[in-house]
Amino acid sequence: MTDFLMWPLYERLLARGYSVDRSRLPKQLAWIENMSALTAVQEVRNTSDGYLKYWESQRAGETLYDL
At what angle do helices 2-15 and 26-37 cross, to 10 degrees? Predict the structure, then answer.
C-alpha cells in the first residue's frame, strides 16, 4: 500500500525531469521501473504534458482538475 501512496510523488518528480542515477540508486530505479509496469499504475498514470498543463493552469489561477 505504501508503494501506491508514494508513487504519485515520484510520477510528479519524473514529469519535472528528475532522473535516477543507476549506479548510485539501483534499488530506487528498479522500484520506479516495477511500479511503472503495474497495470494499476498504467491505468491512472498522468503524462508529463498533463502535469505541465495542470501546473500552468494552476499558476494562471484557473486550475484544471480534469486532465
Answer: 100
Distance CA 47, CA 49 (A): 5
pLDDT one-digit tens code per residue, 18-62 = 888 989 999 999 999 999 999 999 999 888 888 889 989 999 999
* Residue 16 forms part of a structural domain: no
Distance CA 66, CA 32 (A): 25
In a domain, 38, yes or no: yes
Whether 41 and 7 have beta carbons less than 8 Å apart is answered as yes
Q: Which domain holds residue 58?
A: 1-7+23-67
Total domains present in the chain: 1
pLDDT at 64: 87
